[in-house]
Amino acid sequence: METVLVEDVLHRFMLERAGVRGVLVRLGPAWREVAGRSHYPAALRSVLGQTLAASALLTGNIKLDGALSVELKSSGGLRLLFAECTDRGRLRGLARWNDPLPETLDLAALPDAIMAITIGNAERGQRYQGLVDLQHPDLASALENYFGQSEQLPARIVLAADGEHAVGLMLQKLPDEGGHDAVEDEDAWTRIQHLTATLGQEELLSTPPEQLLYRLYHEESVRLFDPRPLAFGCSCTRERVESVLRSLGRDEVEAALDAREGEIEVICEFCAQRYTFDRVDAEHLLSVTPAANAPHTAQ
Questions:
Q1: Which of 8, 76, 143, 272 could tie 230 with a disulfide, CB 3.0–4.6 Å?
Q2: CA 268 – CA 29 distance, rounded (Å)
Q3: Residue 158 phi/psi, 5° resolution?
């Protein structure tokens, strides 16, 4: 008997009658693993969950080699927001903040805020980065605007997260795709937007993917592609930590060893993996010539 994935899954689909392609992401255990890493305030937990779902959502219609990340930095209470999805469907994310945070986070009101979407393979030095204009208070609207500007394609994005699930739905109008009916149906995109507008956050969070798509778009000839499993996962390695320490230089590494009784401990903020280095380890890593294009990030 075939098992139907209803959590930690990415579904690609086509609304063939309307000439619209879509992606639906539903996260359960993977999101709870990320959310459980810190005592996030409720408003921030929701935005982090939406960002994690969005990082997976944006991989749905691209050929990905490496990872896609969504990152926001600001000088306000929300200092950092980061989520990443790899080409293997491994997700991770975190946020840093200063108390007190407002009950509702308005991204457009954050001082000196910058949001970037980065796609590529850091190991090979192949990366593309696009900046997201933060003129909208919520992440979904900001991403819709990004797609409209960068791809010249209208997009409709819906994001929601609570303590149990994080869900994202993205729809894009493709002018020359779909069947004969789609070419002649000038109102198709408007109709799809109206149908999507009937979707409440509670329904989005509580309804299994296939049931949700049928409920919304059953008259639009929904064609589902094979689902893609997702899971929590971190790309940190001892080698990457060594690369970071090596980039600090001998003086800083030896000063850290002296300050910490001869042992450096590095803890990954994403997965809590601990890496320890004594003086012998430090001498070895400092004496090794780094490989070309070696990444200088622990994660």
A1: 8
A2: 20
A3: -125, 130
Per-residue pLDDT tens digits for 261-298: 899 988 888 887 888 999 998 898 888 766 544 444 44
Tokens linked to 213: 């798509």
54 touches 64 (CB < 8 A): no
**Confidence band of 4 (pLDDT split at 50, 70, 90):** low
Q: Which H, E and C letters describe the chain, residue by residue? A: CCCCCCCCEEEEEEECCCCEEEEEEEECHHHHHHHCCCCCCHHHHHHHHHHHHHHHHCCCCCCCCCEEEEEEECCCCEEEEEEEEECCCEEEEEEEECCCCCCCCCHHHCCCCEEEEEEEEHHHCEEEEEEECCCCCCHHHHHHHHHHHHCCCCEEEEEEECCCCEEEEEEEECCCCCCHHHHHCCCHHHHHHHHHHCCCHHHHHHCCHHHHHHHHHCCCCEEECCCEECEECCCCCHHHHHHHHHHHCHHHHHHHHHHCCCEEEEECCCCCCEEEEEHHHHHHHHHCCCCCCCCCCCC
> Which pTM was predicted?
0.85
Cα separation, 142 vs 68, in Å, equals 17
